[in-house]
Amino acid sequence: MTVQPPNPFASHLPDQVSFDRHELGRILALYGRMVALGEWRDYGISHLRDVAVFSIFRRTAENALYRIEKRPRLRGRQGMYAVVGMDGQILRRGQDLAQVLRVLERKLIRPVE
Fold first, then answer.
1. How does pLDDT run along the chain (113 residues), one tens digit per residue?
2. What are the angstrom distances between the C-alpha of 87 and each of 3, 13, 66, 84, 100?
3. Residue ranges per domain, the chain?
């Protein structure tokens, strides 16, 4: 029987990336407003090793309209939050989730006829 020494880096690497309560609250507040307007109908959450993804759908059977991604490894570079469009284009990226979500909140503003 072999005994392996403990890996000092193992405790620093999470098994998966996830949204915390405040991040999820902010995302779900925006999601709720868009559901009330009838724009969005469904969502999905994925927690992977390198990224957490909140996917937004117009209908369940379609591809995601938008993906809100959290990548902690990009914290010191472009920013750990990103909003990605249906075609894979990054619409906004940054350190502050509220600032990043503003690109989607602009969809709430409509001209009055």
1. 566 666 555 555 567 788 889 989 999 999 888 888 888 888 888 888 888 999 998 876 678 888 999 888 877 788 889 999 888 888 889 888 888 888 888 765 555 56
2. 49, 31, 9, 8, 18
3. 21-100
